[in-house]
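Quick board copy: two proteins, each given as sequence then tokens.
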Amino acid sequence: MDCERFTASRLATRDWAKPSRDPSALGLGLGSDRHFYPFEFNPWRTIKLMHVFNPDVKFDSQLISKYDKPTPRYTSYPPATELSTDFNHTEFHNAIALGNQNQTPLSLYFHVPFCESACYFCGCNVIITQKKELVVEPYLDYLYRNIEQVASLIDRDRKVVQLHWGGGTPNYLMPHQAETLWTEINRHFTFDENAEISLEINPRYVDRNYIFHLRNLGFNRISFGIQDFHPQVQEAVNRVQPEKMLFQVMEWIREAGFESVNVDLIYGLPFQNLQTFTDTVEKTLQLSPDRIAVFNFAYLPALKPVQKNISPDALPGAAEKLDILQMTIEKLTGNGYQFIGMDHFAKDNDELAIAQREQTLHRNFQGYTTKAGSSDLFGFGLTSISMLDSLYVQNHKGLKDYYRAIDQGNLPIAKGVVVSAEDRIRREVIMELMCHFTLDKTAIAQKYNLDFDKYFDREKYELELLEADGLVRLYPDEIEVTPTGRLLIRNIASIFDGRTRDKIIKKLSKSI
């Protein structure tokens, strides 16, 4: 991409282009400290090779321990923690009107909050009930009304490029209920022919017919949670799903012709150790999903009471968790998966990996995506978040409040936040780093008509500290995240967070 920067013979050797760990090799008469002159003139900052994406990620347990602190996940900026009840609903109508004027594409999210049983690791907004006949139909009725409320404000010519059903458990719905919801959505929205249409399922509650039913409706992507293959771990978190069943579900998904499959793993669960989780990763590789998410279990029983069912004594220690993480990264990247960022991996030929290499990857409340970077995301149902260019809003978390607002003829919005002019600048900086591990300072300066270094003068010192620790490389026109820094991308991005950087937010998970 930046061929004009350095197109000579690509240098005699690759090592020539790297800062020497022995500064005396530069003829500067300095010692061998690898953190030499981090805050003074660094001749290496004046040299930037042609940008070629390097998918490497390096594990440094000392640096991970040093930077392991609560930070936002930056599925948005401002982060979701900034949403407030002090919000004018008129702003939402104005933002929709602007999207209509610009014919901004659409991304849709539908929340099905119900689960038949509680998974003790879960941090999602769910309702545990086996009384399907009492809860599902009333909820769907209100969901349809919510769809009609919002769809009536949106220009029908705006195309849907991404749709996702999450939960909870979307396959809590009976086949005919899923079909009715699908029909209602299609009645109000127009889909792009290449739309990404996905949902999450609980593999314990599907059969072959249900999988094929979903595919026939139009879903082309699917995700399900494995968490861990080990029976003792499954029992400890109340999520027993035999290995044979998981392989059978994957076979049905492939047979039905889904274009992409994601599976979730969680490390840090009770009774896990390096040996058992190595077995889990190896079995996951046998399943050969297109994408794998590997989440760190955040034990927060004060915030998530269901986690009180887990004894803290059964949890692996910090050192064991780091060993598990390192093993997982090495095995996945050594078997054809590219580290996308945070906790996500994708096969080298998956469109997520391709988009990252081509620097067209995006991120929103649904995670990493190739489709929804320039779209308005509308969330429907309990707790759902809508993410428009100029504001974010979240629906009520309680059924009674959600139902009451709709009965009163109001949108069921509980809180929101307006994106300021400064937020837009910081959002773009943070998302570029989160998605591509690099930031073109010149592009930001030109787009927003500012002097990048002056605008972010406060952040300069902290960036230089990160550079001294080998997490970033600073150039006159670019910030580059190193392979070592990629695991700590949340920490790096947080340097540019003007809203939460000086706050202590207990609800945030740690960066690793």
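And the next:
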Amino acid sequence: MWVLALLAALLAAVAGPAPTAIIDRLISWLGCVERHGLNSGYLGGWNERGHDADWYVRLRSALNSAGCSSAQLVGNDSGWSGADDMANNPAFNDAASTIGVHYSCDGGDDGDARSCQSTQTGRDLGKPLRDSENGSQDMNTGAPALIWAITRGYIDARMTGYFNRPLLAAVHPNVPFSTVGLATAGSPRSGHHAIGSSTWATAQVTPFTRPGWKFIDSAAGRLGGSESHGSYVTIRSNTGSDYSTILETTTGQGKGTATASAAHSLGPPRSDDFEADADGTEATYLSDMQGSSEVQPRTGRPGRCVQQVAPVKPIEWQDDSDSYALIGDTGWSNYTVSSDVLLRSAGTTELLGRANTQLRPRSHVNAHYFRIRDTGRWWIEKTHTDGSNHTPGTGEWHDLALTFQDSTISARTGGRQIGSVTDTSFQPGQAGPGIQGYRTDQFDNLSITAGPGSAGGVATGQVTPALNTAKCLDDYTDPTAAGAALDIWDCNGGANQRWNVPSAS
């Protein structure tokens, strides 16, 4: 049995780039994994997008020819249609070693997993059946579904593998699924973290079994024969006489506490010339949202900078965005974000500010942009104005700045203001550099400086508890009178969840 607290999936497309090119890329990726001292035992197909049986057959042949015969293929990382096709296609059946489906239990990725399902066709193939993606639930409220999917996944559906994503949600609280996994760490500068109930649930399984152990059918079932009482499974070592019995009940348990460092904000002011970072590393506190930003040698002058190093748009799983990165707190309101920028090729580069709510896909982020093109065209979005009184061109460094002061948003380059707009759509939020498309522009001397009213003033936005940033303070009956009752509810961006909060000095 494999019970892992991470999602080990590789997304490969069978549409878009030629299928042969995808196979070549996968083999190249395996070589990269090996060079970094890692071992990849499994490869998947196109995540949740069906499958091409012939492509799996050709991939299996290519892997064998490239000396990668030990890599096993999982088909098809979607539903049970892969098993149906394996039953009718001997070549596909021989190519795939494991059947992988996503969210086989009740309710899918947001369900309670009180019972789980597989198909008779899938079970009859005699291959390992694995939930190759689970998770997507809060680290506390999702704990019952986690343990039920493990125990009842075998009892009901004979699933012998469970992959939960992610291990640690070290993401900003404005990112989707910010409280999933075993623990959260949404304040990277402080070291603050929270351990979820899912950790306790996982700890009842992972220390007591190993990959290769086998379930004992005669020692698995429901307590008292009833789903409401709980369930149990027994797993025995494949190399010795050890075995473990795991029981789950519906009452919930826990043991011990953990005290983390207190969360605290990150400036402003905040500036970085990246000279303290090694080439090829990530810049401190600058989080990639899309693309890949790394510290690299500067072009045209000595020193280091941050460069977006992905030269082409990746294969999209959904309607993803241009490349960009963010830094800071979602409560930042009045500030200036500035950076030196080198356009290494023709195109558009940008600074983002007041970036707050991010939705799926990543192209749906609430933010304001100062965008400038090598031809001289520039504009400010969300509300925008256009102009052409500065032509940056390519191959030279330029300084850009985007200032937020209450409802006024202004853009500056070359030391002078080139335009401003009035907009109140997004009040507080993070800042960062970005690029339209996937070019390899460079950014240096990234700086955020506070504006008047940013210290001791008032920010407007959602109020979330530290233990569960997916929940918000909610004025659920919309009253305005003194003494109105409030509660904690799922964050939904509604007006009844927006509050004026004095910012810390």
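Board note added afterward: The chain is about 15% helix and 30% strand.
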